[in-house]
Design goal:
alpha/beta, five-stranded mixed sheet, two-stranded parallel ribbon, 11 helices, 9 strands, 19% strand
């Protein structure tokens, strides 16, 4: 999925060209771009088995993703956001690790920021109980297309957390997520800017996600989800909030995050 980020899209597509696993069917769903996106896609037509679908008006990322899933002809689907990139062995590694007893396959991720980078080392198996505390999968997986269709794809009514919502439904139906403990994806955030309207939309979307799934959660999971919502609203007041809202196993992580938020931002 892409919209008005032609320069970033080029980097993403280059990372598909160099994949060690072949063949790969590429579907670019252009959600109403008015920039040079079409020209960028055309420049890759000879390098990739590429299908270009353009929405004349923007329909939103979840619908764009669903359009791509519907159009795909392969057994597996692997998402790639237009501002991110794959390690050259990402698809090969995920395919080699695939096991039908898991709902889908993810990998470790490197985040690139304006002032540096950090690596997210995920646990090897992410079960439903773990996932109900927070999104421990990330934004992309490799999964059978049939499974995506069976659970209804991305929820087009959610304004945020659409990926998290989908992983929960996949995990609930098909079992835990298997994680390849290699950095196989780079998530770029250095180009992002904070906008109040986007923050409000994200918060509303996450609240809708919480209401959708809270019936699955135990008391500890609900409290931790609400803690993160309160934090996003700026209502976290001090370390007592961590003690009152956070599971003991996450005290150290949240205390570190509180210190960074309070003294280094």
């Amino acid at each position: 999925p892409t919209r008005n980020r032609s320069s970033l899209l080029q980097r993403a597509l280059e990372s598909v060209v160099v994949q060690s696993y072949k063949p790969i069917e590429v579907i670019v769903v252009d959600d109403g771009s008015t920039d040079e996106t079409a020209a960028v896609v055309t420049s890759f037509q000879k390098k990739l088995d590429l299908t270009y679908i353009k929405n004349e008006e923007g329909k939103g990322a979840p619908q764009a993703r669903n359009i791509g899933i519907e159009a795909a002809s392969g057994v597996f689907v692997a998402g790639l956001d237009d501002d991110d990139e794959w390690h050259p062995d990402r698809i090969l590694s995920l395919i080699n690790a695939y096991d039908d007893s898991f709902s889908c396959i993810s990998s470790n991720v490197r985040f690139r920021y304006a002032d540096g980078s950090a690596t997210w080392h995920k646990q090897e198996v992410i079960d439903l109980n773990t996932l109900l505390y927070s999104n421990q999968v990330g934004n992309q997986v490799l999964v059978k297309r049939e499974r995506l269709l069976n659970v209804g794809g991305f929820d087009e009514q959610l304004q945020a957390a659409q990926d998290y919502d989908l992983w929960l439904r996949l995990c609930d139906k098909y079992g835990p997520v298997k994680n390849v403990k290699k950095v196989l994806q780079i998530v770029h955030t250095e180009h992002e800017t904070q906008r109040i309207s986007n923050s409000i939309t994200q918060l509303k979307g996450y609240l809708a996600f919480y209401k959708k799934h809270k019936h699955r959660m135990n008391r500890s999971q609900r409290k931790y989800q609400l803690y993160n919502i309160r934090r996003a609203q700026g209502k976290q007041s001090g370390l007592l909030d961590i003690i009152g809202w956070v599971p003991p196993a996450r005290y150290a992580k949240e205390t570190k995050r509180w210190v960074i938020d309070r003294f280094f931002r």
